[in-house]
Amino acid sequence: MVTFRRSLWHEPRPADAPPVGRLDWVLVGVFTAAALVEGIARPGLAWQPLVTVLALALMPVLLWRRARPLMAAVVGWGVVGLLSVLQLTAPAGDLGLYSMMAVLVLLHSLVRWGSGREMVLGTAFVAVVVALGMYVSAAGWADVFGGTVLLLLFVALAAVFRYRADLWHRRQREIRNQERVALARELHDIVAHHVSAIAVQAQAGGVVAGVQPEKAVEVLAAIESEASRTLAEMRSMVRVLREEEAVAYSPQPGVADLPALARAHTTPAVEVSLAGSLSRLARPVDAALYRLAQESLTNAVRHARSATRVGIDVRREGDAVRLRVSDDGRTEPGPAPELGFGLLGMAERAQLLGGTLLAGPGPEGGWVVEAVLPVEASA
């Protein structure tokens, strides 16, 4: 209970309070017209001019109800309290106008848009004013019960709307965080793969330049091509992030694009094998298989010791697809290395789709990455 009171007291104002708009002016106009008509036409109203003026002066306060909810509630309910004091000091019958029920809107706005401190102070003030009014009017138990239920109903509705809005904002933050993680994973996969290819080509160029100078031109062209592709993909992703409207960009690669990763005249050589029906995979699964194979190949090229071959094997097994990427590099004895960002991102990809991923030394040496994904992505 103590923790709840402290959290309520330190609750900040909602950050999404809309500015004064056309509907707010319409609301003020409707209540003002109602107060003016009632003040003139209502028979038997005591202190008719004063009550009408106070009611008309109260209506513009509705425009403050979101920007200054505590001040609006204090002013509005203060007018109600003033009328109760006048009725107590000089009994003159009923002094209230039905149109002054607008103060219930101020109570609703206090709970919906106020901070924790404003809610506590404002509702305490309202409770005092209501108690004074019930005492002055000598209300019976039925009236006290009905009035209390009405006030609590407005408070409860405001609390529900506030909670739903806060829940929606939290959901939006969770979605943004998930998108950031997915974007970080995509950037890592794309940049790491292309930069690794550039590094391999640059190393090969250093060797070839001294023996076969004419081959150096081909290596430089390959480096330029990889760098251009990396830059184009980075620009595409940045454009998607910066522009609110949909932009046209190339679709994500899939299993059908895996043969493009094969390389026979480099070290290590890359061999790609596809088996089974792989043409009707769900889009997320199709893209994930390519990214998993791409990242596994990147890791093999960068980290496999003395590797001469990297094999990429994808095959359909019933309602699942199995990806296996293995190399024939030399493994060092000792504990398994810690998982880096690449392997962690790969494992997250597989888990999000309802699959599994295992990575570690192979039984015959080298390093093996094996992922099993469902043909249809899980919800």
UniProtKB/TrEMBL annotation:
InterPro entries: HATPase_C_sf, HATPase_dom, Sensor_HK_TwoCompSys, Sig_transdc_His_kin_sub3_dim/P
Transmembrane segments: 46-63, 70-89, 95-113, 120-138, 144-163
EC code: 2.7.13.3
Keywords: ATP-binding, Kinase, Membrane, Nucleotide-binding, Phosphoprotein, Transferase, Transmembrane, Transmembrane helix, Two-component regulatory system
Pfam families for the chain: HATPase_c (PF02518), HisKA_3 (PF07730)
SUPFAM superfamilies per the UniProt record, alphabetical: ATPase domain of HSP90 chaperone/DNA topoisomerase II/histidine kinase
Substrates-to-products reaction catalysed: ATP + protein L-histidine = ADP + protein N-phospho-L-histidine
Domain Histidine kinase/HSP90-like ATPase as annotated: residue spans: 288-376
GO molecular function: kinase activity
Domain Signal transduction histidine kinase subgroup 3 dimerisation and phosphoacceptor: 179-244
UniProt name for this protein: histidine kinase
Organism name: Lentzea cavernae
